Amino acid sequence: MRLVLVVLVALAAFLGPNFVRASWDEPVSAGQPRLVAAMFRSSWCSACRILEPRVEDVREAFGEAPIGWVRFNFTWGERGGLRDLAVEEGIAPLYDRMDGRTGFLVLMDRETGQVFEIVTMDYGREQIREALERWLIVVERLESVEHPAP
Asked: Does pLDDT of 3 surpass 90?
């Protein structure tokens, strides 16, 4: 009985932090932002446990920025619903290319499918913030060239 209790406490400690963070799983409505930040994560991924809190902290600072935040959570191994989310978000080719790998955040152009940068656990909060700012500027410039103001 004591062993069962120890195992349950260990599982709660391991999995618990993965359920208290804000949800990214709400799809973006029409007029989706061109810059996408897609997190590929799982509770059993040690790199995710390092990277995700950093990304979440930075994400809060970019509250109103035109970034489409998407999180693919492979914790329970249910890929069917995740593929549907990727299709709904317009990033299915990226999802297919990553093939269930976890432990990184992909910054990409939703319109062209170009991957700008892959953020890993080696990035600190400041580096993540800088990467987001850099690619927001690039996307803004792309849109101004493609759709100049009259």
From this structure: no
Of 90, 69, 57, the residue nearest 24 (C-alpha) = 69
Q: Which range marks the domain in which residue 107 is found?
A: 23-146
Indicate the number of domains in the chain. Answer: 1
Q: Kindly tell me if the per-residue pLDDT of 100 is higher than 70.
A: yes
| The pLDDT value given to residue 31 | 65
What local confidence, expressed as pLDDT, does residue 50 receive?
Answer: 96
Helix axes 46-61, 125-146, angle to 10 degrees: 60
Q: Which band of pLDDT confidence, cut at 50, 70 and 90, is reported for residue 32?
A: confident
Cβ distance 47 to 103 under 8 Å? yes
> Which CATH number fits the domain that encloses residue 134?
3.40.30.10
Scored b (16 or more CB within 10 A) or e, 7-40 reads eeeeeeeeeeebeeeeebeeebeeebebbbbbbb
Residue 44, both tokens? 């059993």
Nearest to 68 by CA among 27, 40, 105: 27
Task: Return the residue matching tokens 């990553």.
Answer: 98
Mean pLDDT of the chain: 82
